Amino acid sequence: ELSLAQRVGRIKPSPTLAVTAKAAELKAQGKDVYSLSAGEPDFDTPQHIKDAAIDAIKRGVTKYTAVGGTPALKKAIITKMQRDNALDYKPNQIVAGTGGKQVCYNLCQALLNATDEVLIPAPFWVSYPDMVLLADATPVFMYTTDATRFKITPEQLERAITPRTRMLWLNSPSNPSGMAYSKAELTALGEVLRKHPQIVIATDDMYEKILWTAEPYSNIINACPDLYDRTVIIHAVSKTYSMTGWRLGWAAGPARLITAMADIQSQQTSNPNSIAQVAAEAALLGDQGCVTEMVTAFKRRHDQLVADLNTIPGVKCLPVDGTFYAFPNVDGLMTKLGARDDLELSEILLQKALVAVVPGSAFGAPGHIRLSFATSDKVLQGSVERIKALLA
Ligand code: PLP
C-alpha cells in the first residue's frame, strides 16, 4: 500500500462536510432530506457585491495581485476595523487569504513549534485542533457546558496554562455554541493572559455581525487594549455577507507574524482571488443594510426554532447570542430513541427522520447536536415535527 506522510494520520476530514455529503447522498436517492447541517447563510450574495465583481472582470482585474491582498483591499479592511471595532492597523499588519480558514491555517504554520500547546475552548470550530496538529503542536481542550453558556472561565484558563502554552483560540460568537463573550468576561480572561506574555491570542471574529445581544460586540482587544501586540484577529466576508464561496478572509495582528503568514502563503497559494478581493472591498465599504436584513431573519428564525426545540421531549436548548446555530443538549432524546451517543442519534435522525444535523462530538461537546437555522421556516418547522413524530 502507498505510504503517506505521518501528518495525514493525525487528522480527519471535516466532520461537518461529512454530514453534508451523507445528506446529499440520501437526497440523490430521491429522499426528501431536511438539512440543518450547513455552515453558511442561505441568502444570495447581495447584488451590489456581485456587480462590483462583474465590473472587476470587465476591467481586467484578473491577474496576480500582491500576495497578502491589494493596497485597496487592505485599506477597506483597515477602514472596517476603525469604523466597527475602533481598532487601528497599518497595511503591514494585514494579510488577506483564501477564506478565514486559510488565514487560521497559516497562523498555526507561522507561529507553532512541535513542543507548543494551543488552548482550545470546547465546543470548538472543527478545524482548530487539526490545524494545530498539522503544525506539529498539541491541542489542549478546555471543556465547557451549558452551565457557563459554553464559555470558559478565568479559573479554567489559568489551570490550563503551562509554560508550553503558545496560543489561545477565542471564537465569539461561537460556532457551534452561538454564544458570545461579554466585554466583562473578556476583561476577566485578559487578566489571566496578562500574566503569561508568551501566549498569542487568536480571536476568530467571523460571526461578529451575526449577533443580537443588548451589549455591542467586543473582542479581547476592545476589552484589554494592552493585549493588542499579541492578538491576531481573524475575519472574513464569508458569513457576514453570505460570500462563503468567494473565499476571502484576513488576519490583523503584529507585523512580524503577519509578514511570516504572508511569506508562507507566497509559497502556497499566492494572492487570494483578485475578483473576490474587489467584491470584498465593495462588501466592507458599501451599504451595510444587507447585513441588517440577514441578521433580522436569523434572529426571527432563532426565536422560533429555540422555542420549538424546547417542546421536543428530551431536548434542552438555550437561546443563543448570535450566529445561525442552535446547540441543544440531547441527552434525554438519546435515551428515548435508544441512541448510545450523539453520533448514533444524528445517524438515527438522518436515516429515520430525514433530518441532517451535526453531532456535538465533532465539536468536542458530546450529548449535543448542532442545528443550523440558515434555512427556510418550512424546513425548520418540518424538522421539529419529524423528530417529534419519531418519538410518537
Ligand atoms: N472560523 C469559524 C468559526 C467558522 O465557522 C468558519 C466557517 O465555517 C471559518 C472560520 C472559515 O471561514 P471561511 O469560509 O472564510 O474560510
From TrEMBL:
It comes from the Bacteria. Its cofactor is pyridoxal 5'-phosphate. It comes from Solimonas terrae. The keyword Transferase applies. InterPro entries: Aminotransferase_I/II_large, AspAT/PAT-like, PyrdxlP-dep_Trfase, PyrdxlP-dep_Trfase_major, PyrdxlP-dep_Trfase_small. The keyword Mitochondrion does not apply. Keywords: Aminotransferase, Pyridoxal phosphate, Transferase. The lineage of its organism: Bacteria, Pseudomonadati, Pseudomonadota, Gammaproteobacteria, Nevskiales. Residues 32-387 form the Aminotransferase class I/classII large domain. GO terms for biological process: amino acid metabolic process. This is Pyridoxal phosphate-dependent aminotransferase. GO terms for molecular function: pyridoxal phosphate binding; transaminase activity.
